TrEMBL record:
MF-aspect GO terms: CoA-transferase activity
InterPro entries: CoA-transferase_III_domain, CoA-Trfase_fam_III, CoA-Trfase_III_dom3_sf, CoA-Trfase_III_dom_1_sf
Organism the protein comes from: Orrella marina
Signal peptide residue numbers: none
Keywords for the protein's UniProt record, in alphabetical order: Transferase
Protein name: CoA transferase
PANTHER family: SUCCINATE--HYDROXYMETHYLGLUTARATE COA-TRANSFERASE
Amino acid sequence: MRQALEHLRVLDLTRIFAGPWATQNLADLGARVIKVERPVRGDDTRSWGPPFLKDAEGNESREASYFMAVNRNKESITVDISTPEGQEIVRELAKTVDIVVENYKVGDLKRYGLDYESLSALNPRMVYCSITGFGQSGPYSSLPGYDFVFQGMGGLMSLTGKPDTEPGGGPMKFGLAISDLTTGMYATFAILAAIEHRHISGKGQYIDMSLLDCTVSLTSYMSMNYFFSGEVPKRMGNVHTNIVPYQVFRCKEGDIIMAVGNDSQFADMCRSVGLPELSEDPRFKVQSNRVRNRLELIPILDKAMLQHTMLEWVEIFEKNNVPCGPIYTLDQVFEDEQVKHRHMKTELNHPLGVNVPTVANPIRMSDTPIQLRKPAPLLGSSTEDVLKSELGLSDDQIKGLRDKGIL
């Protein structure tokens, strides 16, 4: 069955997370992605473990789960781009691709003749995406940075965590590398937008993606609240700033998320907890008043929620059209009947002779469905094939490059 992007070829010069996440998205959609890694060491995240994949004999390999999370469906070649010969290999490959994605520090690839200006002169139809911490311009553009830094600088940690007045209060990072993930997603659709524009213009273009920019964009309605009110938002734990009740409640056993998004759902919730009169109380009847009077409403609901266990409330609320949900650990997530039905956990056969579990791509397309073809590649496993098929190099030429340490 055909895939949506199987006509596209990608030269992947990325490492760590944001860049590889973007190119994995393209690979999942069918693009051929050739990942260029350093000889011997490869991508830094190959060593970011444990845990590491165990082979068929139960021996620990060098395949880190972190690396395997963002490099599925790709081919790996090893090339030392600090050498003239390695740079020439990358330039020749760039002539044949539609997309180049890189996340080197600003100016690094220009020293090697692998920057946008150099490669677009060889291939004007190429879309070239650069991903950096701070972007290609500005006073911080030359600085390095990791996801954690941008969660702080971008404002996310000022919004995440318990209030300072509560025990354990203080700034808290997101549980995942959310700045990297978001930047990778933005980069993916920016690349596809540039490809679509190429259909009209016939030309590629340059894309400048910044982790800081993308993190700031995530503040979304919280920044709009600040712009409109002039008040700096504070950490509110599991409470929503603009919607009430929209938070975690303690039950007789366990905790539950209640996410009441409109007045009709609020009335349904009030009937469900045995307090129908609350939905007619002028303090709480409409959403804006519930926000203004949350300190009066929430203690009433806190008491009511102690009547039943979390599982009992889920059953009651689901029958009465009240949006709610349990708080799962990851083992519980993948045992949930809906998650199982959607096949969000799948397995791929690995060259080490084992099946590798992976989180499935969530995109569902009717005519060009996602195909998870293979797990993250072994380091350099496609080097000879790519150099022979794409550049026409002979066995002797490849051996000579290997002997020099270029591959």
